Amino acid sequence: GAVVSQHPSWVICKSGTSVKIECRSLDFQATTMFWYRQFPKQSLMLMATSNEGSKATYEQGVEKDKFLINHASLTLSTLTVTSAHPEDSSFYICSARDWVVWSYEQYFGPGTRLTVT
Amino acid sequence: AQTVTQSQPEMSVQEAETVTLSCTYDTSESNYYLFWYKQPPSRQMILVIRQEAYKQQNATENRFSVNFQKAAKSFSLKISDSQLGDTAMYFCASGKYGNKLVFGAGTILRVKS
Q1: pLDDT per residue rounded down to tens, chain B (113 residues)
Q2: Taking phi first (over 0 means left), then psi (-120 to 50 degrees means alpha), and beta for anything else, what does residue B73 get?
Q3: CA distances from residue A93 to A31, B26, B30, B70 in whole angstroms, order as listed
Q4: Which of A46, A56, A63, B43 has the fewest CB atoms inside 10 Å of its own CB, making it the most exposed?
């Protein structure tokens, strides 16, 4: 089956530093990846849609300069949280859509827990 | 804009019994899909069941089935013979073909032994 990985699974960083989260499709090519943010016991909030080779599309209210998204290849998208602050602490989840099998389904990564101290 | 509403923040059910989770949605799209996802304590999102809006027949996956009422924009999930492993947060979601998903607030389901 289609597998999406995320790295790291948990990261702790100091306030003011930047942290990069990777999302990889392991056994399929993904032209489109989605980045979500989730607070404890809450729903997934879509942050941005990442398309390979083009700029990401951000949802309203999401700071583009703070959450930098790069989708440089068909199997890798990265989310960089710049100048992180404690309020950025959250669970970040990516999902990917198969390029070959154009379908409804998105495959989700296991998520990354970010803690900013 | 699409919206998805889950009005049951928490539910509990005895093992082996049946439980129904509610979901209503609103969309102006003509072609769309509806989904139920499960998020166990590991927080890995797992697709439980999907329904193509153009299909009248309700989707079924083993112990999981949906009641899709298109006119009422209702999409409930029925879990039969509940098992301890069904304990999780369940999200209803709506999306266009191959496009982004809109999630409901979620329902925490606890299966008791």
Answers
A1: 789 999 999 999 999 999 999 999 999 888 899 999 999 999 999 999 999 999 989 999 999 999 999 999 999 999 999 999 999 999 999 998 768 899 999 999 999 99
A2: left
A3: 17, 25, 28, 30
A4: A63
B-chain residues near A41 (CB < 8 A): 89, 106, 108
Tell me the chain B residues in contact with residue A38 when contact means C-beta distances shorter than 8 Å. Answer: 43
Amino acid at residue number A75? T
Rg (CA), chain B: 13
Cross-chain residue pair B100–A49, CB shorter than 8 Å? yes
What DSSP letter does each residue of A52-96 carry, written as one string? TTSPPEEPTT--TTTEEEEEEETTEEEEEE-S--GGG-EEEEEEE
C-alpha A54, offset from chain centre: 16
Q: State how far the Cα of B90 lies from the Cα of B105, in Å rounded to an integer.
A: 9
Whether residue A91 and residue B43 make contact (CB cut-off 8 A), yes or no, is: yes
- Per-residue pLDDT tens digits for A12-37: 999 999 999 999 999 888 889 999 99
User: Under a CB-based contact definition with an 8 Å cutoff, are residues A46 and A34 in contact?
Assistant: yes
Is A44 in contact with A37 (CB distance < 8 Å)?
yes
